[in-house]
Amino acid sequence: MDYDGILSKGDFMHLRIGKSNSRTYLSIVHGYRDKETGKARSKVIKSLGYLDDLGKQYPDPVAHFKEIVAEMNRKEAQSKPPASVTFDRDERLEHRQNNRINIGYATLSKFYHDLSLHTFFQQPLTPMEIRI
């Protein structure tokens, strides 16, 4: 995936704190999920430098750059237009139209089979002796 500056749903930028040659370095990283493999990936957007060098410029470099990353994420979220859906309230679905999906049934069916309720209800009732 090429980074084009646009984050999609679930994507985010964060501050990565890493170690190299016993020194701690900071970088701004874009995290995303690869569409082909489904695996989490990351791309370095900007290498900031070593923590000890940045400590000379900023009193708390980690807090400073975390705020910068948060601002970058806020600006990115604001730059996206809001999603909108329009529909005609007077339009009716035809009786035999098969372009609907009943998600509710699929969810209940999954629970029903995961809990093995189908086998439970198919078992014959066994007489129970109850003593009072």
Write a structural description:
31% of the residues lie in helices and 23% in strands. The chain has 132 residues and is of the alpha+beta class. The chain has a domain at 12-79. A 3-stranded antiparallel sheet has the order 1-2-3. Strand 1 (12-20) and strand 2 (23-33) form a beta hairpin. It is elongated.
Could you tell me the strand content as a percent range?
Answer: 15-25%
Q: From N to C, what is the helix and strand string?
A: EEEHHHH
Mean pLDDT, all residues:
81
Rg for CA atoms: 27 Å
**Oligomer description:** single chain
- The number of distinct β-strands equals 3
What is the helix fraction of residues, given as a range?
A: 25-40%
- Read across the widest sheet, the strand sequence of neighbours is 1-2-3
The helix count comes to 4
The main β sheet shows up as:
3 strands, antiparallel
Helix-strand category: alpha+beta
Q: What's the end-to-end separation, in Å? A: 72 Å
Overall geometric form: elongated
